[in-house]
Specification:
Length: 445
């Protein structure tokens, strides 16, 4: 196995002691061998000079929609349900195999360039296999699945599916992709949200997730209008309903969770459900601000996610970290959501959300070599003297500061050049594809 050495770097480990060390990081194959002690350059196959650089665990984005990356800028200034009905659903219904593939590559390119190494991705109803092909090609680590929708008001015909078909296609994709490339790709059942899924579908998802021991990834309590529909249809609030039908548990990832009452928060805590905080999306869609300060104090595990490009409009973890650190301070005080807590959400707590905290999320011997190398020698990150390196990253750094991204021990980006994608080709194909989708959907550019 090839040995890769990052020499003489500042290393933010996020190990249990959250140590920050100056030294060497040795990788053999897909695993970290040592962190800190000096290693002879002559004993390895490749050396990266880490002098003046900062090495961090790769970011883990716990809520992403790769299928929506092509829609960036096409659904601005709308609230959630109008955003879905007027723009996103018609555009998703217009997707074809090529456009899904291109949309995924476009999103993955942005994610890798910003130091994200793992994503929890929710696709659309059709053509999900092509998204998995893009994920496989790119080298990114992913927990992904086909969206499931067998009911709902104003859903375009192209997104309407029968329960049996939705379940069968999901299982087929699971059996093809779950565990691909030694587990780099895993499958998650992805019912969109309660208002677009029958109880029959959700019960089958519950049973199949248990059978295959896989995660369920869905939206919950993002918008007051959504909650009103759930209460009308079920007589219960979102989380109470999900718990009632047996879907809550340690393999459930809920995106957003803005409008929760105390009973719902307690269910999430008690069941070990994971929550993905998406501050950029929540602000842009005017959905609200999740009470993550209270959830953190309760011991609920929280990750961070950019959501989709048309509701953010980027997939930048640096942007999400800074927002998550800032938006809670006016209501909860200046020490609410401190930089280190935010960085945990972006790394080790994100790893816990996907059930991989023993494998990724920190830089420790024996763990997977998923990491990013930052160049913080910039006007916007100085002075550096006597400044907590994690504070520099959360409050000052930018995605453009990422020089190198390594996933599973493979260098997928070096000196800002992504090795697994043809950037010029992806950008050209993206413009060509969105023109086609706009014509097909009837939405004017």
């Amino acid at each position: 196995m090839e040995k890769l050495l990052i020499k003489n770097a500042e290393i933010i480990t996020m190990n249990p002691g959250e140590e920050i060390v100056q030294g060497d990081l040795l990788i053999e194959g897909d695993r970290i061998v040592s962190v800190g002690p000096p290693v002879a350059a002559e004993s390895v196959d490749r050396v990266i000079d880490g002098s003046g650089r900062t090495v961090i665990p790769g970011f883990i984005q716990t809520h992403i929609h790769l299928c929506q990356t092509l829609f960036r800028g096409k659904a601005d200034d709308l609230e959630l349900l109008d955003w879905l009905r007027k723009r996103i659903w018609p555009l998703e219904a217009a997707h074809d195999e090529e456009s899904i593939y291109v949309s995924a590559l476009l999103g993955i390119g942005e994610l890798i360039a910003g130091g994200s190494t793992t994503i929890v991705d929710m696709e659309t109803v059709h053509h999900t296999n092509e998204a998995f092909e893009a994920i496989a090609q790119s080298g990114i680590r992913a927990l992904s699945g086909k969206v499931m929708m067998d009911k709902g008001d104003d859903v375009p015909r192209g997104l309407q599916e029968k329960t049996v078909d939705s379940v069968q296609e999901s299982v087929d994709l699971l059996e093809k992709w779950n565990g691909y490339d030694h587990g780099r790709i895993r499958y998650a059942f992805a019912p969109r949200f309660v208002i677009s899924c029958t109880e029959q579908l959700l019960l089958q998802v519950r049973d199949l997730a248990e059978k295959y021991r896989v995660f369920v990834h869905t939206h919950a309590s993002e918008n007051k209008g959504e909650i009103a529909i759930v209460e009308r249809d079920t007589g219960m609030r979102n989380i109470i309903y999900l718990d009632h039908i047996g879907l809550t548990g340690k393999r459930l990832i809920l995106a957003h969770c803005i409008w929760l009452n105390d009973e719902e928060k307690e269910i999430i805590r008690k069941r070990g459900v994971h929550v993905s905080h998406c501050p950029g999306s929540n602000l842009k869609l005017a959905s609200g601000i999740a009470d993550v300060t209270h959830m953190t104090k309760m011991g609920i595990n929280l990750g961070l996610g950019a959501d989709g490009a048309p509701c953010n409009n980027n997939l930048d973890m640096f942007h999400e970290m800074r927002l998550a650190a800032l938006i809670h301070k006016p209501a909860n005080g200046p020490t609410a959501m401190e930089a280190r807590q935010i960085f945990r959400m972006a790394t080790i707590e994100g790893a816990r959300a996907v059930g991989m905290d023993q494998e990724i999320g920190s830089l420790e011997p024996g763990k997977k070599a998923d990491l990013a190398i930052l160049n913080l020698n910039q006007f916007h990150t100085y002075p550096a003297f006597d400044v907590d390196p994690i504070s520099r990253i959360v409050y000052s750094a930018a995605s453009s500061d990422v020089e190198t991204t390594i996933i599973d021990g493979h260098i997928v980006m070096e000196n800002r050049k992504i090795k697994t994608l043809d950037k010029d080709r992806v950008l050209k194909d993206a413009d060509r594809s969105i023109k086609r989708l706009l014509r097909r959907s009837g939405i004017h550019a």
